[in-house]
């Protein structure tokens, strides 16, 4: 709402005249080489009472692509919405439900119960019917497979969506581990941290996130056996 950027190719192979809209704005044209990001100014030291709080998700977003992070957070640009939107959050929600049910009852939900949960909760508002069916089947297989392969961990679940805050000088990094598991059921402070990855492998941002949660848990007096 604050500014409009208009661009065009410097040259075209076909003989096409510039858009009349471009011609109307030609007096505003700037040389692309003169466009640069705002200078980074070093922040002044924070006082003892001032602490900057940063969600870890923002750090992960910055690590993925600093320029995309700047466009979204500083410029206000929002990328187009993908038809898969909601899939990753839905998987996390389903896995959290499975973990909470296993923790409260001591029994991991069956394949049929998981299929019913997927049918009840999977919400993909922008996916066409064919893609929705495919993603629903994929979600069902993924959650069922996880429940079978990690049944023991799920039974030993301590907490789902556990909030952590890593307090550093002038900075607190906050985030949530998807599941906290008792590494040793006989000793409450001994835990393992689990963070789900719904696409690709564990990248540097995910690994760093686990390190942040592990450090924060250690400072709380918990013994972290694994992440």
What does this structure look like?
This protein is α/β, with parallel strands linked by helices and 227 residues long. The protein is 42% helix and 16% strand. It is built from eight helices and five strands; from the N terminus they run H-E-H-H-H-H-H-H-E-E-E-H-E. The chain has helices at residues 20-24, 56-64, 66-75, 87-105, 111-121, 129-149, 151-155, 204-219, and strands at residues 52-55, 157-168, 171-182, 190-194, 223-226. Strands 1, 2, 3, 4 and 5 form a five-stranded mixed sheet that branches. Helix 2 crosses helix 3 (66-75), helix 2 runs antiparallel to helix 8 and helix 4 runs parallel beside helix 6 (129-149). The longest helix has 21 residues, at 129-149.
What's the short version?
By secondary structure, this protein is α/β, with parallel strands linked by helices. The protein is 42% helix and 16% strand. Strands 1, 2, 3, 4 and 5 form a five-stranded mixed β-sheet that branches.
Give the SSE layout.
Blueprint: H1 20-24, E1 52-55, H2 56-64, H3 66-75, H4 87-105, H5 111-121, H6 129-149, H7 151-155, E2 157-168, E3 171-182, E4 190-194, H8 204-219, E5 223-226
Parallel strand pairs: 1-3, 4-5
Antiparallel strand pairs: 2-3, 3-4
């Amino acid at each position: 709402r604050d500014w409009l950027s208009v661009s065009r190719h410097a040259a075209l192979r076909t003989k096409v005249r510039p858009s009349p809209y471009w011609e109307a704005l030609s007096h505003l044209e700037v040389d692309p080489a003169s466009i640069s990001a705002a200078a980074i100014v070093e922040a002044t030291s924070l006082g003892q009472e001032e602490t900057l709080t940063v969600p870890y998700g923002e750090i992960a977003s910055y690590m993925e692509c600093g320029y995309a992070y700047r466009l979204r957070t500083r410029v206000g640009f929002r990328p187009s919405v993908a038809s898969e939107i909601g899939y990753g959050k839905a998987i996390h929600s389903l896995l959290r439900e499975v973990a909470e049910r296993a923790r409260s009852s001591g029994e991991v939900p069956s394949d049929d119960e998981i299929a019913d949960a997927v049918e009840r909760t999977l919400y993909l508002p922008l996916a066409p019917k064919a893609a929705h069916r495919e993603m629903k089947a994929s979600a069902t297989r993924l959650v069922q497979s996880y429940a079978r392969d990690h049944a023991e961990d799920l039974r030993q679940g301590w907490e789902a969506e556990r909030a952590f805050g890593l307090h550093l000088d002038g900075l607190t990094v906050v985030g949530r581990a998807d599941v906290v598991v008792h590494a040793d059921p006989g000793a409450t402070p001994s835990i393992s941290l689990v963070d789900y990855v719904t696409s690709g492998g564990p990248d540097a941002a995910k690994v760093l996130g686990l390190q942040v949660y592990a450090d924060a848990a250690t400072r709380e007096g918990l013994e972290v056996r694994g992440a």
